[in-house]
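Task: encode each sequence below as structure tokens.

Item 1
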Amino acid sequence: MRRFGRTALAAALALAVVAGTAGWATGDSRPAVTGPPPGSAAWRAASVGGRALPDPAGASPREVARFFAALDGDARRELVRAHPLVVGNLEGAPLPLRYEANRMAVLATGEARYASLAGPDRQILAFDPRGRGQVAEVFGDLERAAHVSVIVPGSDNDASTHDAPRAPHTGPAGMGRALRAAAGGTTAVVAWTGYTTPVGVGPDAATGRLAEAGAVRLARFTAGLDAVGAPDPVLFCHSYGSVVCGLAARHTDATDLVVLGSPGMRADSAAGLGTRARVWAARGPSDWIADVPNVAFAGLGHGADPVSPAFGARRVPASDVRGHAGYFAPGTRSLAAFAAIAAGEVR
């Protein structure tokens, strides 16, 4: 009975404390954005050269890739012009087409909060304006990269905050730029805010509901990278993003799974993730996530601590990391280690 009481108390604390990058704030429950992008009904009703278009909900990324490989340039451009939101979010579609389609989709919203994403130097691999908005951005040359990393951020991230003016290495785009600069060479980095993240502290941050929806989207995204010939990725998962990665791990072809500032991965151990990827974990000395109880009770909390020896992850040096979002700060030991993992230099 005493053990049950302690677990219940820890779960209550987890509900009050678990958060993402925003820190100590309250948060409301948010509906997860799922399913195919806007415009899918018109896409399904269309055709090209008498051929039906691949169903955004049912076609595999490899089927999508084969479909586009059979089209000439004019047919591809016509699909981009007529269905930018679908082409821009269609896993398996050629990368240049997705960049072009998403630039058009961003401009079509007419919303100032998204305007910078349409810049000529941006490579937007996914853009969905529903809800708070979702976005994925590429840093480097993804078509020719020898190594690919995907950053999965935590709470309080969406299409409008993806590249918000804050400390340059803390938001998804900032993390992506920092890792790309550190890894260099032929490494490409994708900052993937491709799921509905929790806002502040509240039930969404303490439960796995949004992470479960995000894991499905992350698994399909990595399958899309595979379909266009990209190397198997390294996943860098921050805060609540590590819950997403934990649930998606067995469904991706990631070579490495790196979690930082993690409240737990909904697994008792690295082996329990069901992945052949190497699992790494980092936590800085002043990261408040250490105060989050590592419990899982009645759907609350995210389980075992990934940096504990019992979990079985490899440790990433992070003694000079400041706060919860400083892992990609230039000059830190953590960023140097991340860059070595991303570039395939660690065996």
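Item 2
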Amino acid sequence: MTNDLYVMGIETSCDETAVSIIKNGTEIISNVVASQIESHKRFGGVVPEIASRHHVEQVTVVIEEALDQGNMTISSIDAIAVTEGPGLVGALLIGVNAAKALAFAHDIPLVGVHHIAGHIYANRLITEMEFPLLSLVVSGGHTELVLMREHGIFEVIGETRDDAAGEAYDKVARQLQLPYPGGPHIDRLAHEGEPTISLPRAWLEQDSFDFSFSGLKSAVINTLHNAKQKGEEISPENLAASFQASVIEVLVTKTIKAAKLYNVKQVLLAGGVAANKGLRRELENAFMDLPDIELIIPPLSLCTDNAAMIAAAGTIRFQQGKRSGLEMNANPGLDLETF
């Protein structure tokens, strides 16, 4: 008889169909991701209807592959965790209904998970979390500083007021005629150039931990338009480096300020933009001067959307006695602090 806890995670909030099985909240047994990037690339962004259709086609296959990869059967699963929100409502519905069908058919407890909580808990697959901790969440739709004093309780102390960092990256990439998704291409170009172009940093109010990248994005667009009108050439590499330097300086500075203010033991990086090499390097450099605070950066495979993170977050909720009924619906506006 084993006391091990096996949780299956299902994630379909955007353009990845992902299923994973996690043991005891910390050990990955299987982690399968079917990406749709190639399907959306020609449109320059995610098309919700296409994303939903792909999820319908893939979700059963990916569930079976996750079980096969872990050499397990559905009867071995103790709970099913699924992304309830936020995300694209049509995409979320596919995962939610697949999870509900499995839970109902096999009489397995169901646990709804907040997508951002998943990104944060991806770090627990690397090392145990120590409280209080601060998480810098940087993704296509979210830029937030989240304080945690205990498992499962989230306090958002800073958030984006307009474009999230990932959104700004994609919009700037489009101006530079780079393929979707733009973040990795900007990051690559930035390492080939120098930050020689003066671009703004949006610090907002003195005591604010909020973020704003819309003005920076507009400044990049204006720089390109002004150069074109004057017949001047602007180095894409230098512009990418200048843009990235502005984003990273604000992210890192506010994270350090918040970490010191709240006297945290750990700082966790989370979200798709956590894969950015420039951001990872600058955070590592900054925290070398703060030996009392442990910086946790997940591997690239756990930065982008995946189901291991959903299962990890779902494990905590399950252990805390939280359950979702079969009336659970997709909730694209799900609030992190109250869910």
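Check on item 2: The mean pLDDT is 96. Strands lie at 6-11, 16-23, 27-35, 79-85, 110-114, 133-138, 143-150, 153-159, 266-270, 294-296.
End of task.
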